[in-house]
Amino acid sequence: MSTLLKIEFNVPETEADAAGVFIAARAPHGWEETPRGDQRHFTLYLEDHPLGMEMVREFEARFPAGEVAHSEQESENWAMAWKDFFIPVNCGETFTIVPPWLQDQCADGHTCITIEPKMAFGTGHHPTTSLCLQVIADLMKKGRIKAGGAFLDLGTGSGILAIGLCKLGLTGLAVDIDPQAVVCARENVAANGVADAVTLTVGTVDSLDESVQFDTVVANILSGPLIEIAHLLAPRVREGGNLILSGILADRQADAVAGAYVRQGLDEPERRIDGEWAALIWENVGA
Predict the structure, then answer these.
(1) What confidence tens digit (pLDDT) does each residue in 167-218 have?
(2) Is the separation of the CB atoms in 243 and 217 below 8 Å?
(3) pTM for this one?
(4) 94-99 LR contacts (CB < 8 Å, sep 24+)
(5) Are residues 74 and 145 in the same domain?
(6) Residue 60 to residues 13, 63, 112, 262, Cα–Cα distance (Å)
(7) Domain span at residue 134?
(8) 261, 243 contact by CB (below 8 A)
């Protein structure tokens, strides 16, 4: 049986945002985050032990006021641990995210997305994922997103946003730099019965054909990469289409990300806030 490296971080609450950004940049899958008095506690699991130990050393150097512990744990135990805190999540009035063992708990009238919690980011519990699904649903109700349209999900993680778009009648492409995430996304796509509606691939936006455009582009990644690829991502949105960006801290990063896309000729975006996180929305682009 394979083992995982369990890593636990404690940081002062004043450094929690920075720690979350640090972890997300090095572990693009899910993690658990809980307040503990005046501290924030992070728990995550890595299969790559050398990578995990490197992350521990980086954390100690970056957050000298924090505490870090690590231990090996059987993969089977990690999977069972998810069941202790994974509950159905309602994302607005349209989507409910459930694990396979709670499929009967989908909210009445909601579209159910089944996600197997594994080593990929995107279970619906993080505000950035929930924000994106709420925005997608709202744009559908407004007629901005339409069945039959084409989408790009950049940084697909567990495939959750691609699945939501497919269940609304769109088809598209889901891309991630992490091969492990793509494997996980492929399983989730199949479990939701939308495998024929989405193509999954390992790569980045610059690996796509420059001539290809989409009706809806969504990228729930990190502010740094979103700024760096603005000149590549903005042109992917077809005239009259939609661009949804998240993974962005509202107070510290939203202005910089918005500015990068405004410099590409887009208007100022709508901002949707959930706690410390923001989603930036451009609808009817270029029309």
Answers:
(1) 999 999 999 988 878 888 999 999 999 999 999 999 889 888 888 999 999 9
(2) yes
(3) 0.74
(4) 94/133, 94/134, 94/137, 94/140, 95/124, 95/133, 95/137, 95/164, 97/123, 97/124, 97/125, 97/133, 97/160
(5) no
(6) 16, 5, 41, 37
(7) 124-282
(8) yes
**167: Cβ–Cβ under 8 A, 6 or more apart, which residues?**
111, 113, 192, 194
**CATH label of the domain that carries residue 245:** 3.40.50.150
Q: Which residues contact 267 (CB under 8 A, 6 or more apart)?
A: 282
Q: How is residue 202 written in tokens?
A: 């390992």
Contact of 195 with 128, CB cutoff 8 Å: no
Q: Assess contact for 137 and 92: CB atoms under 8 A.
A: yes
User: Does residue 96 fall inside a structural domain?
Assistant: no
Measured distance CA(69)–CA(238) in Å, rounded: 47
Q: Give yes or no: residues 184 and 256 share one domain.
A: yes
| Last residue within a domain, chosen from 51, 83, 115 | 83
Q: Which amino acid is at 102?
A: L
Residue 163 backbone dihedrals phi, psi, to 5 degrees: -65, -45
Give residue-wise pLDDT tens across range 36-56: 888 889 888 776 566 678 788
CB of 12 within 8 A of CB of 38? Answer: yes
Alpha helices, DSSP H, located in the chain: 16-26, 49-62, 75-85, 127-141, 160-167, 179-191, 223-228, 230-233, 254-262
Contacts 24+ apart (CB under 8 A), 265-271: 265/234, 266/234, 269/243, 269/245
Distance between CA 125 and CA 12 in Å, rounded? 22
Q: How many domains does the chain have?
A: 2
